[in-house]
Amino acid sequence: MNTVSATTNGIEVSVTPRYHDDMSKPSINKYVHSYQVKITNLSRLDVQLIKRHWIITDANSKVRNVKGDGVIGLQPILEPQHSHEYKSWCPLSTPVGKMSGSYTMMRTIDNSFFEIEIPEFKLIADFKNN
Question: With respect to CATH, is domain 4-128 assigned 2.60.40.1470?
Answer without folding.
Answer: yes
